[in-house]
Predict the structure of Menaquinol:cytochrome c reductase iron-sulfur subunit.
Amino acid sequence: MCRGGVNNVREKAQVSRRQFLNYTLTGVGGFMAAGMLAPMVRFAIDPVLQASGTEDMHAVVEVSEITTEPQRFDWTIKQVDAWYTSDVIHSAWIYKNEKDEIIALSPICKHLGCAVSWASNEEYPNEFYCPCHGGRYYKNGLNVPNTPPNAALDLFQKEVKDGTLYLGAQCQTL
Ligand code: FES
């Protein structure tokens, strides 16, 4: 009699086929949903997870090399696109203004994106000049009125540390 009672309890504790299917489908469905949602959530919050601050600044030149005449300096950064890493060259026109402040201008023309250069046109010896459509900029980066560019050159974020100029994103405009 006691044995029969134990068997009854065991039979009641067993999972029915319907329950087993429910548990299995819920588990597999939840796993698949998590697998789909995780990349979406990661993508949505990615900017928050990005490193910021001084890690985005790159050593470009010793401050002692900077003169009052704009000079072009290049630096290379490692760019990671998914599993592909490449070297990308960045450039800036750098000089010291009359207040001894360091100015670092983007060489990208604000008209259609050609590269500007300093004093490259004999007619405009003290300006940045874009050869693509004759765009002109004053030394401080402002666009000369009535030339193709309709905005000033971008300025780089900058920081001087231990006698070296570091540049970051080009996010400031005049
Ligand atoms: S791209 Fe520079 S003037 Fe047109």
